[in-house]
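Write out the 3D structure for:
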Amino acid sequence: MVSPSSTAAHTPALGRAETPIAFIQAISTAYAQRGMRMDEALKKAQIEPKILKKNNARVTAMQMELMSGIAMQELDDEGLGWFSRRLPWGSYGMLVRASLTSPTLGLALGRWCRHHGLLTEDIRLSLTERHGLATLQLDDVCDLGVFREFCVVSVLRNALGVACWLTDSRIPLTATHLSFPPPAHADSYRVLFDGPTHFNAPANALQFDAGYLALPVRRDEAALQQMLERALLLTVRPYRRDRLLVEKVRQTLAQHPEHSRNADDLAAWLNMSARTLHRQLEEEGASLQQLKDSVRAQRARTLLLRTRKPLKQIATEVGFLNEKSFIRAFKTWTGQTPESFRQSA
């Protein structure tokens, strides 16, 4: 959507061919409606024109991204023919910029949905949260015709890609709901969206853990300028890190200290293996011990400042076997003994 630079069109197309040719055929229709030929664009994306007639054909994700970026520039339409009016070059970049100053992902996606309505009234985007689940919904306001599937898939994937980019985090989907029947290439949806995909649904929507909405936006204008050079790639970029995990671990350690005795207990509480827990925390640049120390230190400070409890009791509540080990740890965390910290407050 927000588009790569023209120089990216000369990058060799790599990867497995798993993207349905139906999306390239939809772009071909957009060219035809403008009375334009797409031969040169196909050549740059290394797509043989003859495979457009093979409905079961596939192209690689890179070929799809290159073809889309070239078409957006040549048609001067980042909507690629989906809507009743063109979305001039830079439209989706403007949406990202408008969301960039949001403190959290929830506010950023809310802005994204509202501002998208300024670009076109042909579809309506909305973000809701209920029972710990976030739902990003796309409603058809008018008949999108032959572009319907291509439009719905592209807009939803781009919104998810932007959300991942803004938070620098993988956001796994709990489910994808699509209001159209399963197409002939329905098997491709295991690549287009993770998690289960449900066709013939009441509405088009992506669902994920609402906890991600509280993650901070981590990008700035400089990062945006760099991203815009190859922006389409953010829709398929594999984010390995999951920043929500760190917050879940921290919250569990603080609210359920009984599950923090060892990694196995904590991992079981979080419905994962201890090995996966350690690996994902390492990918995020954190460790279980660091998080334990952080939570313990914060709890200790609170008890020292807000209560007159003796150190022995505080040590026990924070999770230490004795007062001596607590004092030693607290001095490592803060450079002060618990008593001096309490007296200096």
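The chain has 15 helices and seven strands.
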